[in-house]
Amino acid sequence: MGVRLNVSNIYKYYNGKPLFENCSCSFDRSGVYILMGPNGSGKSTFLRICALLENPDRGEINYFDGNRALPKDINLMRRITLLFPEVGVFNTTVFKNVAYGLKIRGFKNNKIKEKVEEALQFVGLLHKKEQNALTLSTGETKRMGIARALVLEPEVLFLDEPTASVDWKNTEIIESIIIQIKQRLNSIIIIATHDKEFAMATGDFLLYIRDGRLY
Amino acid sequence: MKKFLGILFIILIFASMAFSAEKTILISTTTSVENSGLLSYILPHFEKKTGIKVYVVARGTGAAIEMGKRGDADLVFVHAKELELEALKQGYFINRHDVCYNDFIVVGPKNDPAGIKGLKRASEAFKKIANSGSLFVSRADKSGTHMKELKLWEFAGINPKEQSWYLEAGQGMEKTLRISNEKQAYTLTDRGTWLAVKHRLEDLTLLFEGDPILFNQYGVMAVNPQRHKHVRYKEAMQLINWLISKEGQSLIGSFKDKNGNQLFIPNAK
Amino acid sequence: MSFLLESFKQAVNLILNLDRELLQIIFLSLKVSGTALLLAIVIGVPLGTFVGLKRFVGREVVITILNTFMGLPPVVVGLFLYLMLSRSGPLGFLTLLYTPTAMIIAQIILAFPIVAALTHSAVVRVPPIIKLASKSLGATSFQTTFTVIKEARYGIMAAVIAALGRVMAEVGAILIVGGNIAGYTRVMTTTIAMETDKGNFELAMALGIVLLLISLIINFCMFLIQKKGVREAQQWG
């Protein structure tokens, strides 16, 4: 298998100041990549640029040995996904939240039901599937977000601070979920986090951003 | 949400059902005629006889004539003979006929502060109202009644504009009467509206009537098809001829308001 | 006072024994306002969403115009439309003056700015993360927009109900372009105006009560929707 994600010579400026300059790296092997760095070092921005949700000021992103990746390439966009720290809950049931990505991909209803219920079972939220998603706790919301990304079986999965403002119990659950995902999906998982213990427990590779450089 | 859309959809289906396609003509008339109920009494007879559906739009006399001039009506039925003749001369209308008349009266407060009761001439009555400084409410809406009122001030040699006792309502007859009632003022009204609403106007009474100058001639005329090619001239003429026919005239004469008063006296020649 | 009470009693009687003519008037009111509202939604929701989500030159101007048009005096709309649709006007060839269609057009002009402006403010209140989340889950830009509209649904429904309230209660514009023709363009509000002129207060009041009941139902729905929206917004926070 060739290079699945290649980041070359990325520049990004924020309010005229450089956030990162000439950052390059490539991801080819499956596994969990941990991205660490101090606050404001640009971890989230880096993930968003990789996930094609934000444009770099210079440089380019390539996926699967392809040409320069563009956000309007919907087929490519549907092979990757990013979970935001705030998740972004739709004002509807937990079930419909998780079904969202499948629905817009045109899956049949019975297939959606099967996949969504399996994913909800996996993150331990099946019993809450008919509840409005806005009523979930922070930890549950994060788990739902993971399920929502997981049903899409992404080849590259970005998780931005999956344990931020989550209690230790939910952190443990999320930890074990990610370890299981790693075994189930043959994907690249890139996680930006502050949490060293969490990083140790889940990570295979470590990346570090500081002063606009990627190590 | 889905139910809501469903309901809207049903409304749309109803709305898209074609509006009736029968032969129609549009007559513009004055509010006083429409409000008297005369047309809804006589027109069904015409519609039954000819199969032509008559739509009635009621406006002030000025606006009713204007509608005809712009080609928005097929014929007009109004009571402002001078305006009618002028529009006729300008070529907007053709085939004008007198149809019927009723009369104007002056009503005012029961104690008659200007002392107009028993006078013979309308100009005299108007002079007295002005000289006594009693309040007078004008329609001030360019209606036939308003035109008549202005004429009467002219005959009395008085310019009421800007006088403190002269109130310009800019309203229909019924509202003007109500204002007069509240303000204890004199006003000029057509007899029909007065008869219809006087039981609600406890502080007003009929004070002056009978001067031939107060007669209110109603006329009908067709919009000139040479000016507006689209008008239904043929059907409009059918209605005009019917209104001045024996049948039309006797129906107008037999029309009574809900208190049993005859409101219009037919006088087609 | 006794006169008021007497009128009210007779009005209730008239409602209880709804005759065909009265029913026809009520039905036409609903038909005209309902159709106008539906078309106002078709125009207003996409317009409000577009203005809310896209950044383009002149956007502020469009928003200001929409907000101003929300308060358009109906008589002005009526007069403008009358001059357009009159046989001597530029659109006279359409022969729409004094038809229910003309009334519908007038009410669309009155309703769509409300729908658009309130949709706009509902859409901009949707947190930006919704748009990003939807994109990252693989939605096309059309699907993303649709998702944002769906999230703004309570605000949009309130907009629709506010617009319905405006068109149902409106008399100035439809009187001018509809002409209040008996059995053809006569609706509740124009009948009320006319019957009041005639001194037929009982009938006017009967229709007034029906209109008030409809408004009451509409406003009650609005209250329920907003309450639900607020509750969900609180759960969000």
Tell me what you see in this structure.
The complex is a heterotrimer of chains A (215), B (269) and C (237). Chain A is α/β, with parallel strands linked by helices. Chain A has one domain (31-52, 70-214): Rossmann fold. In chain A, 35% of the residues lie in helices and 26% in strands. Chain A has a six-stranded mixed β-sheet, with helices on both faces. A three-stranded antiparallel β-sheet of chain A has the order 2-1-4, with no helix packed on it. The longest helix of chain A has 17 residues, at 168-184. The mean pLDDT of chain A is 89. Chain B folds into two domains: 23-101 and 217-266, D-Maltodextrin-Binding Protein, domain 2; 103-214, D-Maltodextrin-Binding Protein, domain 2. Chain B has helices at residues 2-16, 31-36, 38-50, 61-69, 81-89, 122-132, 144-156, 173-183, 191-197, 233-243, 246-254, and strands spanning 24-30, 53-59, 75-78, 93-109, 136-138, 166-168, 186-190, 204-208, 215-223, 265-266. In chain B, strands 1, 2, 3, 4, 5, 6, 7, 8, 9 and 10 form a ten-stranded mixed β-sheet that branches. The radius of gyration of chain B is 21 Å and the shape is globular. Residues 16-20 of chain B have low confidence and may be disordered. By secondary structure, chain C is mostly helical. Chain C is 80% helix and 0% strand. Chain C is globular. The model of chain C has no long low-confidence stretch (mean pLDDT 88). Chains A and C meet through β5 and α3 of A and α6, α7 and α11 of C.
- Total of helices of chain B: 11
- From the structure provided, what is the oligomeric state, counting identical versus distinct chains? heterotrimer
Main sheet attributes: strand count, strand direction, barrel closure of chain B: 10 strands, mixed
Strand content of chain B: 15-25%
Give the overall average pLDDT of chain B: 88
Spatial gap, N to C terminus of chain B:
65 Å
- Shape-level CATH architecture of chain C: Orthogonal Bundle
Number of strands of chain B: 10
Task: Output mean pLDDT of chain C.
Answer: 88
What's the overall geometry of chain B? globular
Could you give the count of β-strands of chain C?
Answer: 0
What top-tier CATH class of chain C fits best? Mainly Alpha
Order of helices and strands of chain B: HEHHEHEHEHEHEHEHEEHHE
